[in-house]
Design a protein that fits this description.
Length: 307
């Protein structure tokens, strides 16, 4: 095969040998193979490889770490669920005890059971102000929230009950009623009488209870001792302030068992009966005063005590 080359300038022709095209094609193949080899070496180089052995190993280590984290999180979640289950049981037991206590207090206090009904859930209501779709919490969270709300409601009721019972107890303790002695009899009434020393008509501001020398003189109501000692005409005197303007006096004692500032309870022994001061024999002169003025003690002696 001959290839003829024609020159435009001189119109001359040149003939190429048949081996030249083969030589050129061989050079082309060598160039292609060389470029391919260089590309392979470039991409296979450790510094330029996208996924080499180290990268694969790093990915495997990362995945292993994530699997360990998932397992740890699963264990933690299970432990939390178990703890929540125990907490729910504790709250339920606590609520049961509170309900039982509340029912008992209502019964003891003789209150209206309809007002403090611990067997029923608290009444709730109000206009619907919700916009959009409400968030639905997990079941265990809803149970805990419900129990917490019920316990809060019960505790509020118990606070009210405690306040009512406390008020009732205070009113009962400070309610003046009964006699200032355990044993004895009334020897002189309130009002005008003949004075035992001169026989003249005189005003008697209290009542007298005669009894055995040294017998107990007791408080007819709770209060604070405002006087405990000698006083002209009264001998050894105990005076108690009961609040709301009420005071009581216990006179002619043989011995005083309390001191000024003491807080005394109802029916507490204050002194021992005697005949000190202006007295003709063992007895206790008992007075009831309202806003500093004497009132008839019989109104308080014969009325029933509050319970």
């Amino acid at each position: 095969m001959n290839i003829i080359l024609v020159s435009r300038r001189h119109g001359r022709t040149t003939t190429l040998a048949t081996w030249v095209p083969g030589f050129l094609f061989g050079c082309f193949l060598v160039g292609v193979v060389g470029l391919g080899y260089l590309g392979f070496q470039f991409f296979n180089d450790s510094d330029n490889t996208v996924l080499d052995k180290k990268s694969v190993q790093a990915w495997q280590e990362t995945l292993s770490g994530q699997e360990a984290e998932v397992a740890q999180m699963r264990q933690y979640t299970e432990e939390q669920l178990q703890a929540l289950t125990i907490r729910i049981a504790e709250l339920q037991a606590r609520l049961t005890r509170i309900d039982a206590l509340g029912d008992r207090l209502v019964s003891v206090a003789k209150l209206d059971k309809g007002e403090f009904d611990f067997s029923q859930p608290p009444a709730l209501g109000g206009p619907n102000q919700t916009k959009g779709t409400a968030f639905e919490a997990p079941d265990f969270t809803a149970v805990i929230d419900e129990l917490a709300d019920r316990i809060d409601n019960r505790e509020q009721q118990l606070d009210v009950l405690e306040s009512l019972l406390g008020s009732q107890k205070i009113e009962s303790e400070t309610f003046i009623a009964g006699r200032p002695i355990r044993k004895g009899w009334m020897s002189s009434r309130y009002g005008y009488r003949n004075d035992p020393f001169n026989g003249k008509i005189a005003w008697h501001e209290g009542v007298d209870f005669a009894g055995k020398d040294g017998s107990d003189i007791i408080s007819v109501a709770a209060g604070v001792v405002t006087w405990a000692g000698k006083r002209y005409g009264y001998g050894l005197l105990v005076e108690i302030n009961h609040g709301n303007g009420y005071t009581t006096r216990y006179a002619h004692a043989k011995e005083i068992l309390v001191k000024t500032g003491d807080i005394v309870k109802k029916n507490q022994t204050l002194a021992k009966m005697g005949s000190t001061g202006r007295s003709t024999g063992p007895h206790v002169h008992f007075e009831v005063r309202k806003d500093g003025r004497p009132v008839d003690p019989n109104k308080y002696i014969h009325r029933a005590a509050r319970r």
